[in-house]
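We give the entry.
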Amino acid sequence: MTHHSDGSLPPQRTFAGSDTVYQLPLVTTISRITDRQLECLSWVQEGKSASDIGAILGLSGRTVEKHLIKLCGHLGVKTRVQAVVIARDRGLISGPRRKATPSE
C-alpha cells in the first residue's frame, strides 16, 4: 500500500457488499471528465442500460460504453456502481431523480 510523504494513507472507500477496499487515486483527472460522460453516468444511476442511454441521447450503445469506460478510468474505479458512488461523493453528479408517487 502506498503512503503519502507524511506517512498517512491515501483516501480509501469500502463499497457496500464488498470486503475489498478500493484505493482512490491521489491525483484524479476530474478536469478531463466531459459533460457527456457525466450525462451517461447520471442515466446509469437511474438504472438505464448503455443501449437505453444511447436511445435517450441519440448515441449508439457502444459510444455510451466508451464514455463510461473513460469516466471509470478518470475516477480510478472498475465498475459503473463505483463510478456513481465516487462521482456523487465528489459532487460531480446529483442523486437520482425522484420518481413521482401517485397520490391517494
Remarks:
- Residues 6-10 have pLDDT under 50 and may be disordered.
- The CA atoms of residues 39 and 93 lie 8 Å apart.
